[in-house]
Write a structure and sequence with these properties.
The structure holds two protein chains of two kinds. Chain A has nine helices and six strands; from the N terminus they run βαβααβααβαββααα. Chain A is of the alpha/beta class. Chain A folds into two domains: 113 residues, 3-Layer(aba) Sandwich (Rossmann fold), CATH 3.40.50.2300; 94 residues, no CATH class. Chain B has one domain: TIM Barrel, CATH 3.20.20. Chain B has an eight-stranded parallel beta barrel, surrounded by four helices. In chain B, helix 3 links the parallel strand 2 and strand 3. Classes of the chains: A alpha/beta, B alpha/beta.
Chain lengths: 223, 292
């Protein structure tokens, strides 16, 4: 699940400067549940753009825009309206915008900003987050990730900036290391606080080339 | 006396600190250096303190070396990755800087460039470990250096905490910092002698010199501000009242500082005075505390 928020309208209109015709595309996946790119938001965007003097050649919502084969097949019946437009405005996450850009030979503009969730949260989303760092430290930290629980992603302990157990970055956020301390105490492993974690390799945070292709790579590769 | 030498000889060491200004004007630094020359064992230079962009610690430390002082090069993990950190350390050595204080650094959103990317490629303990690798003649990629460094590495510790977790973490991390090569500590400002004694009962076992932090109070308002906003600072109410009643705020602030130094002297191996704008007055505080 990706979370998005709509860009300020002025920014979107700025993208369309010097252009008249636009095709609006929404997404019935994450953008629909973010209320940034479902049909209601697409219709509001259409109205606002028309008020701003633009011609909307067409609009549609596809589930999901991250599925390139689906994007191609759903846009096919609308090809005329799409090709008539100077550009496409896509109300969805950064993945969806790129997916559309890969399938349509027209300028494709983002209507949303994708919000950083501070790491993945699994299929059943709780508060635990994983940065997919490829070098798991959870053994040493009582099952609480220091990369996501600590604002500075410190691996060896707290920075000393916390007040009343809250992070110096935000009084709303608990100090990740104080949580780790409490957990280690609970499980009788405070000795782990003394374990030195050497400098991390950040290379494992970059995806490997072989997994840069999606699970639907066969469909995408097909002409 | 140089800081390392003073501590090795068991002298009660005195350090203070200066903060470079935003810009290229170094007049104040030069004046402070002239006044403090021969009166302190080391002078810390803060590194983009409070995440506010200023003249660098490295250049300022180099100026202090030229003035015959022994600077303590403060280095945060916030702004540089491991390549830049190691390179700046080599530069520091070439400039004659011999003390480094490793700290994590306030988060960028607390400073004046709130849109900056935070780095923290290394954390404090890893930075200390890295400095010791350079001292051994190797970089972090295990390449041999042509000419190694010779740094006396320090770290910070917060003796007084508001939670058990924070207190215990400070002690555990102090031990870890020592294990990876920290040879001295400077502390957050202390106003509560009993609390510091409680801390030293635990920290004393490490047998590493601790220079206790002193910030002379300027006003009751400043004390309240620090109590509210500065992690690990707890100014007791009676001191705040003394400041509120004082006609000559500076004199009272200095008296309190001198009294604290005397009360904390037997519990520590030195004092680190953070005068925050009153750097030129540090000799007066030392005189009041009979350390001049």
């Amino acid at each position: 699940m990706l979370r998005s928020e709509q860009k300020p309208f002025e920014e979107i209109v700025g993208y369309l400067e010097g252009e008249d015709k636009v095709f609006i595309l929404g997404c019935d996946g994450c953008a629909q549940s973010s209320q940034t790119g479902g049909m209601p938001q697409v219709l509001v965007m259409k109205e606002r753009l028309e008020e701003a003097g633009k011609t909307v050649t067409g609009h549609t919502v596809i589930d999901f825009l991250c599925q390139k084969a689906l994007v191609a097949s759903r846009l096919q019946p609308l090809e005329e309206k799409v090709m008539e437009a100077d550009s496409l405005l896509v109300l969805t996450c950064g993945v969806g915008v790129q997916s559309v850009a890969a399938m349509v030979k027209k300028p494709v503009y983002p209507g949303c900003n994708t919000i950083n969730l501070g790491g993945s949260r699994g299929e059943w989303q709780g508060s635990e987050r994983c940065m997919e760092c490829g070098d798991c430290l959870l053994f040493y930290t009582g099952g609480i990730c220091p990369l996501t629980a600590c604002s500075k992603s410190l691996r060896n302990g707290a920075c000393g900036g916390a007040s009343d157990g809250k992070c110096e970055v935000s009084p709303e956020k608990p100090c990740g290391w104080e949580l780790i301390y409490a957990r280690l105490k609970e499980i009788g492993r405070l000795d782990l606080l003394k374990k030195f974690i050497p400098p991390k390799t950040w290379n494992t945070m970059r995806p490997r080339p072989e997994i840069l292709s999606t699970s639907l790579w066969a469909l995408e590769q097909r002409d | 006396m140089a800081l390392r030498e003073a501590l090795d000889k068991g002298k009660f060491a005195v350090t203070t600190e200066v903060g470079p200004l935003k810009g290229t004007d170094t007049t104040e630094i030069v004046e402070v250096a002239e006044i403090l020359h021969g009166k302190v064992d080391g002078v810390n230079v803060t590194d983009q303190q409070s995440a506010v962009m200023r003249l660098g610690s490295l250049a300022t430390c180099s100026m202090l070396v030229e003035k015959g002082m022994d600077p303590v090069f403060q280095m945060t993990c916030r702004d540089r990755n491991r390549i830049a950190l190691q390179s700046d350390l080599l530069s520091a050595h070439v400039f004659g800087i011999r003390n480094v204080l490793a700290i994590s650094g306030d988060f960028p959103t607390l400073g004046d460039h709130i849109d900056a990317k935070d780095v923290y490629d290394l954390d404090t303990e890893q930075l200390i470990w890295t400095i010791n690798r350079l001292n051994e003649g190797y970089d972090l990629a295990d390449n041999e250096l042509q000419g190694k460094t010779d740094f006396f590495v320090g770290a910070v510790v917060k003796p007084v905490s508001d939670t058990e977790a924070s207190f215990e973490l400070q002690l555990a991390m102090m031990e870890k910092k020592i294990n990876v090569g920290a040879r001295f500590f400077q502390t957050q400002a202390v106003y509560d002698v009993d609390a510091f004694e409680k801390f030293m009962k635990r920290a004393g076992q490490f047998n590493v010199p601790v220079l206790v932090g002193i910030i002379p109070l300027k006003s009751a308002g400043m004390a309240r501000y620090m109590n509210k906003n500065v992690s690990g600072v707890f100014v007791p109410e009676h001191m705040i009242n003394d400041m509120a009643k004082a006609k000559d705020k500076m004199a009272t602030g200095f008296e309190i500082a001198a009294r604290l130094i005397n009360d904390l002297k037997d519990l520590s191996q030195g004092v680190h005075i953070m005068a925050i704008g009153w750097e030129k007055k540090v000799p007066e505080i030392l005189q009041l505390a009979n350390l001049a």
